[in-house]
């Protein structure tokens, strides 16, 4: 192994942790709102986010990632998932790995072991971003008024993920199911997105899931 | 609104996702300390301002966050092509051929 200092960044026990939308107190809003909501919002908090960089043209890198994660390196604008773990293309030499909370250290060690000696980078960015899951029959309409990117199913099939301009700011949109979409947002923007989504979903009815 | 083709994402994206980052194909002198003040000043500060075709550096800031080159007509704003850094442009203006082969300068620009 190289001399890179890999250490657990998640406090073991009893440490108070606040998700990016802690201040919005989402748990207290669960079950409130309209009967048949068009959009259901869920904050997927405290997941492990790892940025992986390397050379996609190097067969050793491709097979190393496959060996460490059991996931094939996704091609441009796609996300592959297995259970709660997902790997997303962010750029020609950059991917985002999202694992269940608490597993990020093990995932990082496995990656470093499988890619030992290669010119790669693995960075834990769990504290900097979070996922918001939007589900329901009206999600696409909320997206349509927020972004100029074409979210029609012809252009945005399940499994696609794009970084784009959204409500004058920037985020990543991932489509994980027919009516399920995820927004990958920066922590410092979380209040802005929360306010924006409340306003954008108002006409369709917004409910919060825990 | 313009749609610009990102060579890394492989699809047309809205103009607001991009930023222009100035002239492309500016080779950095391999040995800066051997340059005269005039050569170094030219490299650092002087840029073309053509009427017509211009090779430019752009970044897909809101998407894949990668730089690429574009050939744009400064009169009509038509973007003739976009291509990855290191590739040679297909469309070139006569007076605006990138000087890639000058001895003593970096090649991958």
TrEMBL record, chain A:
A molecular-function term among this protein's GO annotations: sarcosine oxidase activity
Extent of Basic and acidic residues compositional bias: 11-25
InterPro entries: SoxG (IPR007375), SoxG_het (IPR006280), TrmE/GcvT-like (IPR027266)
Residues covered by region (Disordered): 1-37
Matching SUPFAM superfamilies: Folate-binding domain
Biological process (GO), any one: sarcosine catabolic process
Residue ranges the record marks as coiled coil: none
Protein name (record): Sarcosine oxidase subunit gamma
Originating species: Pseudomonas putida (Arthrobacter siderocapsulatus)
Pfam families reported in the protein's UniProt record: SoxG (PF04268)
